[in-house]
Write a structure and sequence with these properties.
single chain, alpha/beta, Rossmann fold, seven-stranded mixed β-sheet, 37% helix, 20% strand
């Protein structure tokens, strides 16, 4: 089964048009991190990798109107859809593992909602590293393999749940290994909190009691593992 083809045949391939708290947090934190790291560099160059239909890309342009923004995705359908509202964004169909850029370096390279969808994220990092300015950064967003729910599943002998359109999901330790192999340095990892659409008593116990206790225990062990559902990784050369 061609998962990439099947995923893009639906109208909303990544769910980024939805108002779910998960996706809203993903969008908002991405834009916030870009602004925080660009500071007063209004004419920065930004590369959005795996842009899909361009939902987050357009938010990038809205919050950074003078920035040069290139956006790539391997799907022809996604790029065709994204180009309907250009907003001065350069949407290109390209494979991230082979993309060579346009002769200039990027201040920010964003991998939002792609890391879990590809078979070789390390290869993508190695290729894109050559397009990153010396003082530039990667901003990577991906689900956390060891979210509290998956950890509890393992403790009770159940399988870790991976959505069918994800090749896999990675732990913080695995992402550190990818960066070491690619010759990159992780500066910061952010695990944002977000509201739950349906916050039941069970959720309160899991997210407000059990997760903080286990997170503190992991810190005492000096483990890199954290139990949030969503990871943001900021890294550089």
């Amino acid at each position: 089964m061609n998962l990439n083809k099947e995923e893009y045949e639906i109208a909303n391939p990544f769910g980024l048009e939805t108002d779910s708290d998960f996706h809203a947090t993903r969008r908002n934190v991405t834009i916030s991190l870009i602004k925080e790291n660009l500071k007063k560099n209004e004419t920065a160059k930004i590369l959005d990798v795996g842009c899909g239909v361009g939902k987050i890309t357009r938010l990038m342009k809205h919050s950074n109107p003078y920035a040069v923004i290139d956006a790539i995705d391997i799907s022809e359908k996604a790029i065709e859809y994204a180009k309907k509202e250009k907003m001065g964004i350069n949407f290109i169909r390209a494979d991230a593992i082979a993309f060579n850029g346009f002769g200039y370096l990027y201040d920010v390279i964003v991998l939002n909602n792609i890391y879990e969808h590809v078979e070789n994220p390390t290869g993508i990092l190695i290729n894109l590293k050559q397009l990153l300015a010396d003082d530039g950064i990667f901003i990577i967003s991906t689900p956390n393999r060891y979210s509290i729910k998956n950890v509890l599943r393992k403790l009770f002998g159940l399988k870790v749940v991976i959505p069918k359109y994800h090749v896999t999901e990675y732990s913080i330790g695995q992402i550190y290994d990818h960066h070491i192999y690619a010759g990159l340095l992780i500066e910061k990892i952010v695990l944002p909190e977000f509201k739950r659409e349906r916050f039941r008593l069970k959720d309160f116990v899991i997210f407000k009691i059990v997760q903080p206790m286990l997170d503190n225990y992991l810190k005492l062990l000096r483990s890199s593992t954290r139990l949030g559902s969503l990871l943001f990784v900021i890294s550089k050369k």
